[in-house]
Amino acid sequence: MSDDKRDILEVLKFELNFLEQGGYGRSVRTPWKPTSVFQDSLTCVNFNDPERPHPCTECFLSDYVPEQFQAEDVPCHHIPLNAAGETVDTMERQYTQAEMEEAVKTWLRQAIQLIEQERARRAKTAAKVCACQPPTATA
After folding, report:
1. Total-model pTM
2. What dihedral do alpha carbons 114, 116, 120, 126 form, nearest 10°?
3. Residue 39, CB half-sphere, CA atoms under 13 Å: how many?
């Protein structure tokens, strides 16, 4: 489990919005340098820091990376994005940037929906528990 203290739902929503607004197009500052999904976004715990001082295990995205890929240089590029198990790593060689970004958007929407459903379920369960508790006496 990651050490990331940010709200995973908010960060995933930010990443989706980032992609929907054009996201990983070429940088104005470095148009010759290709951008990297997740790494070139505020989602990354090492964003804009070439030294990469934080281990990727500190990022909540590491929770989505299969165990066998946790030690990879860029573990988040090994998150399965679809039922076929395609990842950013595999898609970089076979698809256009736009196609890969569409797959990431779809994955983000699904992850967001699952988190929202789980939080709603927990809130509903907590509300039921609270309703069953006897009122406390006040003196």
Report:
1. 0.81
2. 90
3. 17
